[in-house]
Amino acid sequence: KLPPEVYLQAVDQADLAISITDLAANILFANESFTRVTGYTPGEVVGNNESMLSNRTTPREIYQSMWTALMEQRPWSGKLLNRKKSGQLYLAELTISPVVDAAGKTTHYLGMHRDITEFH
Ligand code: FAD
Fold it and tell me: Separation of 79 CA from ligand 1 center, angstroms?
């Protein structure tokens, strides 16, 4: 069985930008790659909504399909135009998974994204 700290180290050090939010998408945790990709340290994002990354140009329908999937406890994947702390725009390839407890209730969301600007 894996020692518990390995789960933490694996998430902290993963090459994907990982964040964990509450049910309203308020950020509770962000890993090292999240800082590398977005330019924001955990101290700057924790307590803020994930919408702080939005460039405010992504069509509303995309967010509606995202939230419909999440409320049905389905993961959602897609591409969004995000903005870094520096102001630079980047194309984010994002997957969000609901985190479900033993009783079957969604308690958190797990966000994983990478900057695919140079590949699209
Ligand atoms: P919002 O006020 O969020 O509304 C947009 C639409 O989503 C509306 O139709 C609203 O009804 C619906 N909605 C919003 N919140 C909820 C909720 N809690 N439950 C049900 N429906 C809801 N957005 C990005 O632009 N870039 C990201 O990188 C990004 N990463 C995310 C990572 C995670 C883990 C999660 C959970 C969300 C992420 N989001 C991201 C979505 C973000 O939280 C916002 O919903 C989005 O940015 C739109 O913000 P808004 O203020 O324009 O609109």
Answer: 13
Closest CA to ligand 1's atom 4 = 63
Amino acid (1-letter code) at residue 86: S
Q: Which residues contact 50 (CB under 8 A, 6 or more apart)?
A: 19, 21, 25, 26, 27, 111
Checking ipTM against 0.90, whether it exceeds it is yes
In tens, the pLDDT along 27-39 reads 999 999 999 999 9
What pTM was computed for the model? 0.95
C-alpha 3 to ligand 1 mean position (Å): 34
Give the dihedral sign, CA 34/36/38/39.
Answer: positive
